[in-house]
Amino acid sequence: MTDKPAATTNRWSDLLPLQSASPEATHALGEQLANRANAGDVFALHGDLGAGKTHLVKGIGAGLGYDPATIRSPTFTLVHTHEGGRLPLYHIDAYRLNDPAELYELGYDTYLYGDGVCCVEWPSRMGDLLPDSAIHLSLAHESRTTRRITRLNEP
């Protein structure tokens, strides 16, 4: 009897779901995700305010070689680009997006279909612009200090 080929295994299955008891634990998960990320990966981050989406992106950034202190939610600018790490990091915050068409003006395809890793906060506000291959993660409050992070679109 042989093992399943590596191509059929899920890169994230041993990381998720995760119960995170601190921002540091969420950050550490982000670093682990980044270590397995490939060019073109899009992380769609679902969760209420304060669920830890930006902490996760800071961890992904750190795992790609960026100073997490430079990673802030682009709430008013919609997109932040970080270059010079293992892969570019594109961070989109669609919370204040009035119409997904606004992203056309910003060249959304560069971020969602580009050569880097893209993290999207509030992806439901983007309509049909997300690629089908996006990795949807839910960050949910379990208590004041605990979050449950799960993958929504298991293969």
What does this structure look like?
This protein is of the alpha/beta class. It is 23% helix and 22% strand. Strands 1-7-6-2-5-4-3 form a seven-stranded mixed beta sheet, with helices on one face. A hairpin with a 5-residue loop joins strand 6 (135-141) and strand 7. The two termini are 24 Å apart. The relative contact order is 0.22.
Itemize the secondary structure elements and their pairings:
Elements: E1 18-20, H1 23-36, E2 42-46, H2 53-64, E3 79-82, E4 89-93, H3 102-105, H4 108-112, E5 117-121, E6 135-141, E7 147-151
Parallel strand pairs: 2-5, 2-6, 4-5
Antiparallel strand pairs: 1-7, 3-4, 6-7
Largest pleated sheet: 7 strands, mixed
What is the radius of gyration?
15 Å
Termini separation: 24 Å
Structural class based on helices, strands and sheet pairing: alpha/beta
Query: Beta fraction of the residues?
Result: 15-25%
Individual helix count:
4
Q: Can you write the helix and strand succession as a string?
A: EHEHEEHHEEE
Q: Roughly how much helix do the residues carry, as a percent range?
A: 10-25%
Strand order of the largest sheet: 1-7-6-2-5-4-3
Q: Uncertain regions: pLDDT < 50 for 5+ in a row?
A: 1-8
What is the overall pLDDT average?
90
